[in-house]
Structure formats: C-alpha cells, structure tokens
Amino acid sequence: MINSKFLLLIISLIFINSAYAQQDSSTTKSDIYEVELISGKIYIGPITNDDGREIEMMTRNMGKMIIPKTQIENISKTNENSQSFKEFNAGIYVGWLVFPGASFLWGKTYQSNKRIFEWQAGVALPTTVTGKLTLAHGKLDKYSGISIRVWPPTIGPQFKINRLTLSAEVGPDIDNGVMGILTVGFRR
Between these two residues, 88 and 3, which has the higher pLDDT value? Predict the structure, then answer.
C-alpha cells in the first residue's frame, strides 16, 4: 500500500513541476555578461544599468555591484552561465524498509537561456557513493526538472529555490518492487 501512495506523490510532483516550469517561462530573458576588470577579476551576471560612466550589475556571489568603466578591461555577452557547488542532503529511502540517509556532493550547474543541465556526485550513507544528472527549466537559482540518479538508479522531479533543493525519485527495489528516495539539500 505504501508504494501506491508514493507513486501518487510522484505523479502529483510531476504535475506541480509542469505548472512551475510554465509559470517561470513567462519571465523576461536577461542577457548574461562577463565583465573582466583591469585587475583580472571577472564578474558574471546581467547588467541592470549603464549610464556611460559606470555599469550596475547583479552577480551571484557579490550581489549588486557598481563598477566604474575606467576599471573595466572587457565586457562580453555570454549565452551560457555555470555555477559550481557543494551540497549536503538529508533524505529518506522508502522501499522494503524505511531508512534515513545523507550525502555530501560536488557538482556543477550549466544554464543556457532557460535550459539547465546539472551533474553531481559524492559520498553517501548508506550507499557509499551516489551521483545524478538533472535536466531542467529555469535559472541557476530557481529551476524545476527531472533527475536521473546513477546509483541507486532512480528518476524523478527536482526543484531548486535559491540554496535549497528538493527531490523525489522512484526506482527498482531489491525485492523487484518500487522504492523511493526523498531528499532535501542545502548548497554552498
């Protein structure tokens, strides 16, 4: 009986995922720029204002920045943006038994327009190692998509809102049944 409830939860999350992605697609596209300073520092983000003397931009790491044009070596538009991360996850395995789990992952998220590709791999308990790939729609800090976990083999929706990630995945269990993994993650 727990498997049918879990499958109903997964189906509900997939419908929520679709609605979330459609809602996000109505936002306007911001061009992403790479600003290289004379000092060699590079900042990436959308330019929100340019008055001829200085630019204002929003960066992932530094937030809103105002940079005098006299300090800028080069400004180039980029269609792709990426972000490396470390993530701690706490979760629960639901299958032939219910078992808590945790993982520490390293990964990278790539954004091209509103398309997201992400990989992550790391150490986990109780499986020792884990890894997954995600295809999504959104932005680096807010997306929804589908993840395929390499080990243990599962598939399901994944959501990211700022530093928080949520996933619910299903896959084959050792007793030829269905198992699920629910996780909550925090990224740095």
Answer: 88
CA dihedral 145, 151, 152, 155 (to 10 degrees): 20
Q: How far is CA 56 from the centre of its chain?
A: 26
Cα→Cα distances 53→18, 38, 58, 112, Å: 43, 16, 17, 30
Nearest to 163 by CA among 83, 47, 48: 83
Which residue in this structure is represented by tokens 């959104």? 138
Q: Does the pLDDT of residue 5 top 60, yes or no?
A: no
pTM score: 0.59
55, 72 contact by CB (below 8 A):
yes
How do residues 91-113 score in pLDDT, each as one tens digit?
A: 999 988 888 999 999 999 998 87
- Going along 6-153, which residue ranges are E strands? 32-37, 42-45, 47-50, 54-59, 63-68, 72-78, 80-94, 98-112, 115-125, 128-139, 142-151
Please count the CA atoms within 13 angstroms of the CA of 111 that sit on its side-chain side. 21
- β-pair type (80-94, 72-78): unpaired
Question: Distance (Å, rounded) from C-alpha 65 to C-alpha 135?
Answer: 31
Q: What is the pLDDT of residue 96?
A: 80
